[in-house]
Amino acid sequence: MGLLDTVLDTESQVQVTLSPAEAFAAITLAATAIDGYLSENDARCISSVLLRSKLFRNYTNELMCRLFDKILSILRRDGMNVLFDAAKASLSPELREAAFAVATDLLLSESIVTEEEKYFLTDLYQALGISREVAIQIVQVISIKNRG
Asked: Which domain of life is it from (predicted)?
């Protein structure tokens, strides 16, 4: 928090509202674009994964691009905490588990998983309020899926 934010308390006034689809996409984008940057390849990969889900059944490529732009704009402008809090508030427990599964799939699909990514997944399941047992099951299934 900057000096003026402290005095003016502007950071706590940020209110971001997301639809369930935007929130779901925000969680998956957070897994790959922590620095606020999304490569074209990452965007295609995430879009491909999201378009297979019910939430995004009616999304065109153009709508998906606008969705990514909105989420990345919030990330850059307001930071990860504001984006994550808005996403978490908009997701049902079932969608939180599904978003965790997609984020896990995106991270584990790479041949090398960094320590930072391992910590991210741990932080993510805890922050989403997913039980350790369910998180372990999700990671196990995704690991099996990505063997081939």
From this structure: Bacteria
32 falls in which pLDDT band (50, 70, 90)?
Answer: confident
pLDDT of residue 59: 93
Is 5 inside a domain boundary? Answer: no
Domain assignment of residue 126, yes or no: yes
What gap in Å lies between CA 84 and CA 4, rounded to an integer? 23
- pLDDT band of residue 124 (cuts 50, 70, 90) is very high
Q: How far is CA 92 from the centre of its chain?
A: 14
Token pair listed for 102: 């997609």
Q: Rg for the chain (alpha carbons), in Å?
A: 16
- Domain presence at residue 1: no
Q: How many domains does the chain have?
A: 1
List, in order, residues 6 or more apart from 38 with CB less than 8 Å away. 29, 32, 46, 68, 72
Quote the domain boundaries for residue 112.
17-145
What is the per-residue pLDDT for 126? 95
Rounded Cα distance, 109 and 146, in Å:
6
Domain assignment present for 47: yes
